[in-house]
Amino acid sequence: MNRALSGIFSVILCLFLAPSLGAQERGPANATQTQKTLDLHAMGSSPCAWWLPVDRANGSFDLHGKVNELRSDGFQCEVFVIENSESANSYENFQKVLEATKNTNIVTWAVIVPPAEGGAKTLPYRLDYVAWSRAFAKLSLKYKNFRGFNIDDLFAAEINEKTFTRDYTCKIYAAKKEVNPRFLFVPTIYDLDRTIADRLAGCVDGVMLWWVNLESTAGLQSILEDSRYAVDGRFPVYGGVYARWTSWHKQGNPSPAIFKRSLEDTCKYSDGAVIWQLSLDPADPLLAVAKTFLPGGSSIYAGKCGTGSLAGKY
């Protein structure tokens, strides 16, 4: 081959190979490739109720009554927090929840607390989060509606951040995946930039990103949109919305108007919504708002929460 033909051939070869080389450089961050292996709407298409089967009026543990209320209200997803064994939030009671919901259409999620919130008192596995992950995954083989688990406030305190290094977080993820690859690990965070996304990518099945302003929605859309670009398709982002006052906001519950707008933005700009401490009291105005987002409700996002979001549009 003469020098002229050789030069032309080299140019053609480079042009042919360039797209495939570029794809290789993007690696696992490539959104199209990653989404094929992700469940982007594991929380469901309507808000998931973070609740406690205890009657606030008298403190009694009313499991079946509360499950029946969830069903009659139309909720298809619920979250249960496991804390120390002396409270209604015990691991034993969580297993009762699974038994009570196993023949329903209610998807169940478990939450365990980090070291800074009393994880050392949470039986039976205390601070062995790899053991928790493995045990939960085994339970999910028995209870098909047990969808996944969450570790609360993953980086919210120094001891939590030191505990959940990338290496340890990946071990937690690997433990459940070895038992049941379809069982999910979706921890709680409050900030999500590129650094955090890189730290979690490949070791979580998503995150719950919580909006902590109970008095305004200003900035919520931007935070959720920015999180999508930080994640770049590597895992889904579920928005958390508060339905009750907290230790850092004792002024009371959010107003129905703010609660409604928070859910609207969350349903539009994230992959699904979780409602913290939602009351099942029929007289609670926030419950009435939440029900408008359930299938058949009056909200434009009823039964469509997350499905019309920025997910899949990276």
Got a strand count? Answer: 9
Measured between the Cα atoms of the first and last residue, the distance is: 45 Å
Unreliable spans: 1-37, 310-314
Please compute the radius of gyration using only Cα atoms: 22 Å
Helix content: 25-40%
Strand order within the widest beta sheet = 5-4-3-2-1-9-8-7-6
The ordered string of helix (H) and strand (E) elements is: HHEHEHEHEHHEEHEHEHEH
Shape: globular
Mean pLDDT value: 86
Number of helices in the DSSP assignment: 11
Query: Major sheet: size, sense and barrel closure?
Result: 9 strands, parallel
Helical/strand content category: alpha/beta
Beta-strand content bin: 5-15%
Topology:
Blueprint: H1 3-26, H2 31-35, E1 48-50, H3 63-73, E2 77-82, H4 91-101, E3 107-112, H5 129-142, E4 146-151, H6 158-163, H7 166-179, E5 184-185, E6 188-189, H8 194-200, E7 207-211, H9 220-231, E8 237-242, H10 256-269, E9 273-276, H11 285-291
Parallel strand pairs: 1-2, 1-9, 2-3, 3-4, 4-5, 6-7, 7-8, 8-9
Summarize the structure.
This protein is an alpha/beta fold and 314 residues long. Helix content is 40%, strand content 13%. It contains eleven helices and nine strands.
Describe the structure in your own words.
This protein has 314 residues and is an alpha/beta fold. It contains eleven helices and nine strands. A nine-stranded parallel sheet has the order 5-4-3-2-1-9-8-7-6, with helices on one face. Helix 3 links the parallel strand 1 and strand 2. The model is unreliable at 1-37 and 310-314 (pLDDT under 50).
